[in-house]
Amino acid sequence: MKEKSVWTLGEYRDGKIHTVSYELLAWGRSLADKLNGKLTCVILGKNLKDQIKELIYRGADHVILVDDPRLEHFEVDPFVKILGSLVREYEPEIFIASATTIGRTVMPVLAATLSTGLTADCTGLDIEEETGLLLQTRPAIGGNVMATIKTPDHKPQMATVRPKSKRPLPRDESRKGKLTERSFPDSYFASRVRRISFIPDESAEIPIQDADIVISGGKGLKDGKNFSLLFKLAELLNGAVGASRTAVDNGWIPYSHQVGLSGKTVSPRLYMALGISGAVQHLAGMSSSETIVAINTDPEANIFKVADFGIVGDLFDIVPLLIEKLEKERGERS
Amino acid sequence: MRIGVLIKQVPATDKVKIDEKTGTMLRTETEGVINPLDLYAVEEALRTKERFFPNAEITVLSMGPMMAIEAVKEAISMGCDKGYLLSDIKLAGADTLATAYALSSAIRKLGGFNLIFCGERATDGETGQVGPSVAAQLNLPIITYVSKIEKIEDGKLIAHRAIEGGHEIVESPLPAVLSVVKEINEPRLPTLSGKKRARRLEIPVLKADDIEVDESKIGLNGSPTRVVKIFYPKIAREGEIIYADDPEKAVERLLDFLRKRDII
Fold first, then answer.
1. Looking at beta carbons, which residues of chain B come within 8 Å of A80?
2. CB-CB neighbors (< 8 A) of A142 in chain B
3. Count of Cβ atoms closer than 10 Å to residue A13 Cβ
């Protein structure tokens, strides 16, 4: 019988392999081990051959590389054509990608092309013992319930996986793996939607989905200018600033900072909710954070239910003091 | 110029009932509203007509139970010209692939569109997969995460995409499918005359037989994915909650907690 293989889509951005690729390999490794199968990372990009060993060190047994100057930036048509062709050739059991703008664009198109199932934005993946099928678990209906989904009769079983839902495996330089380089005829690179240019965000801020620490503010901040406190704390902790919908709707901070159902979903190592009551819609966007700290004047606030550590009190008393102590600590250390 | 907008009706409340056997949503028991993120798609369709194609016709299309006709009417009241509802028990229980198949079949049957708008995702299912899947099944280019339409000229469209770290500017030929994000516009409210028009306007209901589908590809049977389990996540944590009677002490304890967790 053919060895079962689990595929991950490596992500290449701005000349580098992106860390979501390593998170996916951590998921893929545990799935491949449960299937006694092989873990393959497929990656498309430009001039990345010398970075490929990183994928092996992080868990891949096999890397399929398509290295071409025309793949410097993601464009959906070439990706779908190339990945579709490789999937038909190798017939992997499972194919997962990160739920980034790339994964969430290419995977639904690819799944439709292959007439197979695709589950969006999973936070849990496992193998069903009896059947060897992929169990895909994701929050549904605004995070109020979790659903486990299977793709019983179609291959590959496809899913996108929420970034930060798993930590990369430790880098292991003793790991060995195989590299397969593939090239494709010109027709594979024709793209209808073409990238003309890119305007990087002006602020040097870390996007909230990528931050290890997110400091969020809500109604309790009372005024937009008080967000400066949060920015200061975030800077000290090397984190990003998030916000509740109320804060965004009040115009205190741009929409890109909004956490929750109609904003971004984050799962950082530390989420600090300051003056946020914890509406269900907000909790849906942050309740999977590793550690949650809440500060609120209302002891009955919903946010305390999901907090690992909560302070019932006035954030305007506590946050400045926290900043002061952290600054002092940093000062002593340097 | 024919513009299509794909919308979905979603439950108005957070209290959604689930059929424990099939794991699908029981939609009829809760009140429905137009998916909030679809309002941006409706608005951008209206603006596109106003900016570039004053003679364009905007058609709203939704798939769902009969009550979803209200969502179609809401879009009409904002200014869309006409609407259709795709509603048939045979289509029930469809996953994103089967939904996109039915929608793309209906779009073909309606004669196709030069531009198709949809929202980034629905706030209930939250997959964001139907738009790209419709594009794939119609063999049209897909532009996801559109935050701005710069221009449409000579059958070509230039749009901005809000992606990680910035905005990507892309060019695409028409026809194309666009999924738009919240930052693209500020949706208008329905007007009184719009509401009147919506009330009077007949919204044709399309059945599976009307759109020439392969029945093995629709509804639950045509869906490769199966919900096998629904459960309530245990989000509550048994955290330590302290009162900041003495802020100094409270902050010390917070710092100790963060140190213990290796965060600072």
1. 136
2. 14, 123-124, 126
3. 17
Q: Which residue has the tokens 């997969």?
A: B129
Structure tokens at A127: 């193998």
Q: What is the pLDDT of residues A172-201, one digit of tens each?
A: 999 999 999 999 999 999 999 999 999 998
**To 5 degrees, how large is the angle CA A319–CA A321–CA A327?**
100
> Which domains can be identified in chain B, with CATH numbers?
2-222 (3.40.50.620)
Reduced to 3 states (helix: H, G, I; strand: E, B; else coil), residue A292 is: strand
User: Which single residue is written with the structure tokens 């002061």?
Assistant: A324
In angstroms, the separation between the Cα of residue A64 and the nearest Cα of chain B is 25
Amino acid at B10: V
Residue contact B167–A116, C-beta within 8 A: no
User: What's the complex ipTM?
Assistant: 0.90
Domain ranges of chain A: 5-189, 208-333
Note whether B114 and B174 are within 8 A (CB). Answer: yes
What whole-number distance in Å separates Cα of residue B176 and Cα of residue B135?
7
Cis amide prior to B65 (ω within 30 degrees):
no
Query: Residue B251 and residue A321: Cβ atoms within 8 Å?
Result: yes
Residue spans of beta strands (DSSP E) within chain B: 2-7, 9-11, 17-18, 25-26, 32-34, 57-63, 82-86, 115-119, 142-153, 156-163, 166-173, 176-180, 205-206, 226-231, 240-243
Cβ atoms of residues A75 and A191 within 8 Å: yes
Q: Is B33 on the interface with A (CB under 8 A)?
A: no
Burial class (CB in 10 A: 0-12, 13-18, 19+), B213: buried
Domain A208-333 in CATH 3.40.50.1220: yes
> CA A222 to CA B245: how far, in whole Å?
21
Residues making up chain B, counted from first to last: 264
CA-nearest residue of chain A to B136? A109
Beta strands in chain A (DSSP E): 5-9, 12-13, 16-17, 38-45, 62-67, 94-98, 118-122, 124-127, 134-140, 145-150, 157-161, 178-181, 194-200, 213-217, 240-243, 270-274, 291-296, 309-312
Quick check: A277 pLDDT over 80?
Answer: yes
Pick from A101, A147, A308: CB nearest B237: A308
CA A57, distance to chain mean position in Å, is 20
Indicate the fold that domain A5-189 takes in CATH. Rossmann fold (3.40.50)
Q: pLDDT band at B80, cuts 50/70/90?
A: very high
Same fold for the domain at A5-189 and the one at A208-333? Answer: yes
